[in-house]
Amino acid sequence: MSLSLSAHLPERDVQVDLEVADGETVALLGPNGAGKSTLLAIAAGLLRPQDGRVTLHDRTLTHVEGGRTHTWVPPHARQVALLAQDPLLFPHLSVRHNIAFGPRSRGASRRTAALEADCWLDRIGLPDLGERRPSAVSGGQAQRVAVARALAAEPRLLLLDEPMAALDVDVTPALRHLLREVLADRTVVIATHDVLDALLLADRVVVLDCGRVVEHGPTREVLSRPRSAFAARIAGLNITSGTWSADDDAVRTTTGDLVHGRLHDDGGGAERADRADRGVPVAGTPMVAAFRPATVSVFPARATGSPRNSWPVTVTALEPQGDLVRVRAGRLSADITPQAAADLAITPGDEVWFTVKATEVDLYPA
Ligand SMILES: Nc1ncnc2c1ncn2[C@@H]1O[C@H](COP(=O)(O)OP(=O)(O)OP(=O)(O)O)[C@@H](O)[C@H]1O
To answer: How far is the CA of 70 from the centre of ligand 1 (A)?
Structure first.
């Protein structure tokens, strides 16, 4: 194993074992507060567990037993790079010098470091922005620079904490594309809420809940046969949140749309979700609605016969999805046949209607 981490941190109720093979990308998935960032902080040496051990390529970085520290390598000496939501570039340095910082700190000459930085600027598609200060580039560009800066330091382990979370949905595909390219063959742990990150970037997923690993395995296996409630909720699904409207017998989303569907109770796993409906939530209960992109039909105008779930959306992207075309509209997506996409002649920016039968929508208390 390249990375082996076992940690117990009682004050955060975290007890986790994690192993990552050499060259493997593992996605840590889990709801808010599950312990994803805590795990990354332990690996990076920003947090000391009560009991635990972190080894990277057989080198012990952390070894603590019962609060007593036996081995502690400080963060800068771990050869571990942590990339957070916020790119945290040095504001007083140019973009080129930010990237050159890694090679310089490895002992490279000024000239070599600058040449390496220029290679990275090309690679991240920003060859002309080297002289700019971080304040003069966009959020998406800054995050690409942060990726280059992290990798230019040649870390043996790269940790990514929700790298896409602070970005507009329009720029996430470009960053995801870059990550796909640069993460191949590196040892990486990426904490994310986004199932697409897991699908596109990770070889394996580890699902955390309440500070424990509740599920792990190859990405597609876990997402196609999820066993934990969280994985079931996010596995390739459209997820939209809102609150229960008793008058409408539906979830009212933050944008005011109503989503009708099949009610489930607390979603305690796929097995339970199959059972008949239980109690109806009280008005105002926070809820999530989940439905598969393949169940969504796309129409140029409101569908006749007006199915109960039909929403006007603006197409933001079209992407191949197996044999189908994924039509993205912000956070929602529909998978349709290439023929249907051609007939509709959809392009990003178009207004269309997404329609889904209530029987295809699962509603869970959030
Ligand atoms: N600085 C902190 N001090 C004390 N407890 C914390 C701190 N940060 C997080 N926690 C607690 O540790 C637990 C794990 O939180 P953590 O931030 O690791 O979860 P997460 O999965 O990264 O969540 P998110 O997706 O919201 O970032 C939670 O119970 C949280 O309340």
So the answer is: 25
